Amino acid sequence: PPGSAPVSRQIAVTFDYRCPFARNAHEAIVAAVREGVEIDYRFQSFSLDQIHVEEGSLPVWERPEGERGGGVLALEWGIAIRDQFPDHFLATHLAFFAARHDQGLQLKDVAVLRAAAAEAGVDTDAVAAEVASGRPLKTLAAEHIEAVDRWGVFGVPTFCEGEDAVFIRFMERGRTDDLARAVELLEWTRLNEFKHTRVPR
User: Fold this and answer.
1) Distance of alpha carbon 63 from alpha carbon 188, whole angstroms
2) Which residue among 7, 68, 124, 178 has its CA within the 20 to 30 Å range from the CA of 61?
3) Residue 128 pLDDT more than 70?
4) What string of DSSP letters covers the chain?
5) pLDDT (tens digit, 9 = 90+) per residue, 138-196?
């Protein structure tokens, strides 16, 4: 059964629900976790709104709610469910990506988040109360700062293992075979960049 396999590696993977490449990677990670992969994946929030903040300006997590950017609220909901309702996290993680990329909905709309979370079986009032507590926002700040300061993260999805980090773009959704191949390369630190000049579509 999923989760029963011995853990051989620990890998943190950054996410922001608005990125289609994060969606591609995280669909594969969720599928691998459900299959019982021998890797402990940590789902680490990272704010794409924050990386576009000008130097010297207030970070998004210190701004009033309406001025934080379009992706912060969804990250708060994702963190709240991950940390307080973990049994529902994988389903809602996929649901939030689907709401944005399959349905074209705006994740800054709390009604969209409520609907997606409810469909995944979460008590949305309890999640909203956890978000209102401010704890998920503080967690977002801590995880984003850790990603930048410890690993030099600049985007999503970035795979972080030990003190090494690799930004990866999967071109297809949910491919556990692509994920497995990429994870094999994480420890190959002499390889810095490998990028196709054209991607056949």
Assistant:
1) 40
2) 124
3) yes
4) -TT-SPP-EEEEEEE-TT-HHHHHHHHHHHHHHHTT-SEEEEEEE--HHHHTSPTTSPPGGGS-GGGS-TTHHHHHHHHHHHHH-GGGHHHHHHHHHHHHHTS---TT-HHHHHHHHHHTT--HHHHHHHHHTTHHHHHHHHHHHHHHHHH---SSSEEEETTEEEE---SSTT-HHHHHHHHHHTT-TT------S----
5) 999 999 999 999 999 999 999 999 999 999 999 999 999 999 999 999 999 999 999 99
Angle value at C-alpha 71, between 70 and 76, nearest 5 degrees: 125
| Cα 117 to Cα 186: distance, rounded to the nearest angstrom | 33
The residue with tokens 């002499």 is 190
Burial class (CB in 10 A: 0-12, 13-18, 19+), 105: middle
Take residue 89 and report the two structure tokens written for it: 């996290």
Q: What is this structure's pTM? A: 0.94
Single-letter amino acid, residue 184: E
Q: How far apart are CA 15 and CA 155, in angstroms?
A: 8
Nearest C-alpha neighbor of 17 from the set 151, 135, 117: 117
